[in-house]
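quick one, 354 residues, struct below
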Amino acid sequence: MKKILLSLIWLGNFQAHQKIKEESKNMMQKSSKIYLAGHNGLVGSAVKRKLVSLGYENIVTRSFSDLDLKDQNAVNNFFKEQRPEYVIICAAKVGGIWANMQYPAQFIYDNLMIASNLIHASYLYGVKKLLFLGSSCIYPRLCPQPMKEEYLLSDYLESSNQPYAIAKIAGLELCKSYNRQYGTNFISCMPTNLYGPNDNFNLENSHVIPALIAKICDGKLKNLPSVEIWGTGNALREFLFVDDLADAIIYLMNNYDESEIINVGSGHEVSIKDLALKIKEIVGYSGELKFDLTKPDGTPRKLLDLEKLNKTGWKAKTTLEEGLKITIDWYLNIPHTTAGRRCLGDPGLNDLKF
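---
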């Protein structure tokens, strides 16, 4: 009898979520209640800008001080109170090679808890549709190029960010598993390397583009003879301007309903050396770029296969040079940075022009 009752409860929950899933295949309405997790970060802030520009008027956000996403009870209470219809998960603990190597426990724990709590609460409180962000860095280290979605978990991960990768993979699997067992409509996308306004320019835990911008601008400001760059410069990377990702996220929320992951990228790759030279050119730095061969390169090459995405009708619009100029301009106008203070006319600092 107990087994029969449990089966009936499961069937009822599954059918309820199947009904929600069918309803969610309609596009998000401008009045739909959308919870955007991680709205202060690089991706979240871009998604919020895009949602607002498109006329979405019921966007729910919470800062870390108001809601700790690692706290399951707090997350459940928030969902119970707010009852969002749609959830976009941009919240994550992220960082470059150095940060991943220094803080592996934090990277795996924080990201596991964030994904688990938000995905489970979305199921419990009947969210119509959820989008979870993976990352291209969680594909195998020596993955065939360009990387197709089915290559995930086909070989060894990159050791320098393995804890982060495992946590992100768990989030992807949570979405697929909840869809299969409960009939939810939880989708996942795999963005490539990102950059843009509101990025993290702290050299201790930033990604490659903000780190290069910060170093090269600093070299220009201080008239340094050289700037040090980690690795050989030979590693190849694909980059996507964050506003393009924001556009893709909203597009997928309205046009994609499959459990399988989908890649999101620009389709263009560049070596770290050529990237550094391009930033040097835009900034107008005349010093030397010195590559520290004792530091790791990370994964040798990362280029996403975008065939699946292109079939949906979406493509990136911003070129690397356009995106770099926007990002550098934004960085130089941050008041609390040396570069920003210079642009705002801080006494004793010369103008930096490019």
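The domain at 19-343 is CATH 3.40.50.720 (Rossmann fold).
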